[in-house]
Amino acid sequence: MRAPDTAPGRPELADLLGEERYRRLERLLLTRALTWAADVAPGCVHVAYEPAGAHPSLRALVGDGASVFPQTGDGASRRVLRAVKRVFGEGGGPVLVTWPELPHWHSAHADGALDDLRDGCDLSVGPVFDGGFYLLALARLVPSLFEPADGGWRSPEAMGRLLAAARDDGLEAGLLRAERGLRRPADVRAAVADPLLDPELRRLLESTR
After folding, report:
1. What is the pLDDT of residues 121-152, one digit of tens each?
2. What is the pTM of this model?
3. How far apart are CA 33 and CA 87, in angstroms?
C-alpha cells in the first residue's frame, strides 16, 4: 500500500477532493482496514508500504499493534509477492492480503475467505467492481500467482490473470462478492448516494456531489 501522506495513489480522487481531504480519506480508509484486520487476526497484522521513507508517519498512524515494513521489488505483483512471502515466513498461513480501498469492512469478508480455504480452496479472491482486488486469501504461498511482475493489480484484467494462473497450477479458487472501492469520482458519487453511508465518511465526500 502507498502511505497516506505521500504522493497520491488515487490521483483522480486527489483532484476531486483536494490534497487535505484526500489525505484524510486515505488515513480513514487505512484505519478502517487496520481495525478490521486486528479483529480478524489479533497480533498478526502486517503493513507493507511504499515509498520506503514513509515509515515514521505511517508508524504514527498504524500504532504499535502491527508489523510495518517497506515493499521492495520491481512491479506491483513482485512487491506483493515479497510481502506475502515475508508474512508466511514469520507466521505460516493462511494469509489474507487486503488493499485499503473499501469504505466499509465486514466480518463476512474474512468469514467468506476463510470458509473457502477450510472447504479446500487454495485461494479466495475478493474483486473490486472496476478491476483488481480488495482481498486475496491464500492457504499457502504460490509464487506463480504473482507473475508477471507488471501484472497490473488494479486493472480490469487482473482477475482473469489471477484465475488463469490458479487454473494452470491446478489450484481451486473461491470467489467472494464484488465490492465497490473508493478510487474514482464515480465511486464517490455512488457512495454519497447510498443512504447507509456513515456520517464520518459522508462529511468527507458529500460536497463533491
Report:
1. 999 999 999 888 999 999 999 998 887 545 56
2. 0.90
3. 17
Cell numbers linked to 101: 480501498
Cα(35)–Cα(188) distance, rounded to whole angstroms?
22
Beta bridge partners of 50: 2
Q: Which of 43, 10, 42, 46 is nearest to 25 (CA)?
A: 10
- Integer Cα distance of 131 and 163 in angstroms: 13
Tell which residue, 76, 87, 48, 37, has the closest CA to residue 162.
76
Residues 6+ apart with CB under 8 A from 41: 96
Of 96, 5, 10, whose CA–CA distance to 46 is shortest? 96
Rounded CA separation 71/53 (Å):
11
What pLDDT was estimated at residue 63?
78
Going 45 to 173 to 134 to 118, the CA torsion angle's sign is negative
**Contacts of residue 28, Cβ cutoff 8 Å, sequence gap at least 6:** 200, 201, 204
